[in-house]
Structures are given as C-alpha cells and as structure tokens.
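Quick check before the chapter quiz. The format below is the same one you will see on the exam, so make sure you can read both the input and the output lines.
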Amino acid sequence: MTEIKAVLFDYGNVLCMPQAASDMQLMAECLGVSFERVETLYWQLRDEYDIGELDGQAYWSQIAAKLDIKPTADQLLKLIELDNLSWTRPNPDMAKWAAKLTKHGIKIAILSNMPISIREYMRGIDWLPTFDHYTFSCDVNAIKPDVAIYQHCLTGVGHSPENTLFIDDREVNTTAAAAIGINSFVFTTARALREYAETTGLPSVETT
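Here is the expected output.
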C-alpha cells in the first residue's frame, strides 16, 4: 500500500454512534403510530432526503401522508429535531483519531449521505474536529455508492485514490470506493480499525 495522505470518514455509524431504537420510537410516538411503520418509511424515503430532493418538512410530510396522517407544523418541527438529535451521539474514539491524523499532516474529510437539516444541525456539534473538506450528498446531489460523490471528495482533499483511505460501515459503499482505486475499510469498531491502521503506517487508534 502506498502512503496514506488523506482519510475520508463516513459520518453516521462511524464518527457518530448508530441511531438508537429509542430514537425511532420517539418519532413514532410523535406521529402516534407503531415503531415498525415509521422505520420502514423512514428508510424507504431516505435517499430522496439525503440527495437534497426533499427538505425536512417535505420528507416528514411524505412519511405522514403514507401513514394517512396530517401532521401539524409543530409535529413536523419536532420530527426534524428528533431525527437530527438521533445522529449526534459521538463515537469519541473516532473523533479523537481524526484529530490525531491532522497532527500527523494527514488530511481528513467527511464523505456522507446526509440531508440538509442534519448538515446544518452539525454546525453546532463541538465534539468533532475541524475537517479539511466536507462532501455531503445533499450538496452534490449524489449519494453513495455513486462514483460522483467519491470524485467530489477526492478533488476536495487534493490527493489521488491510491493515497487516500475511505472508512464506511457499509460494504456497498467501500466496494464502490475501491473500484476507483481508493483504499477502503469497512468499519465495525475502533478496535478493528486500530489493527488495520497498524498495517498501513497510520497513527494508532486509541480505544476506550
């Protein structure tokens, strides 16, 4: 493997912890329906939300319409807030490692499928380090595993695929990155990443 000069991080389930079942339950309670009904529609319409075709109110209005519910303005605002909050629990080991990489002269970027509302909400997060570049699906109108989103991020960090590492929790996304020459790692835990980092010459991942 050639020298890694940039690391691209997925956000959800990598830099932040996975969404908890209790989060989805709160959204279901807000709409007055079962967890299962909301969960199915939440993911069914998510690509349109992530790619920027829907804003938060349109996204939740469409979910409500499929449930034969006419939500109030307050309900819509609450649903957006609950959704935003559900993706803001830090994975401290990964946030610290990202900051550590910058101290070693390695560029860091976020490459994430993310809707506008969460992207805006993230501006207030104080546990993330400052990244050299951000590629969000809602800004580039492409979602992983579309090759366009990887190319956008590579341009942003200014390094070639062979000098870049991409970390994502979904194999379909890492496979797509690998297909254009980006070194890729399927994230499960910081401990597993630590073992991988040791083979690449990257700084060690400190785990708690």
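If your answer matched, good. The first helix runs from residue 11 to 15.
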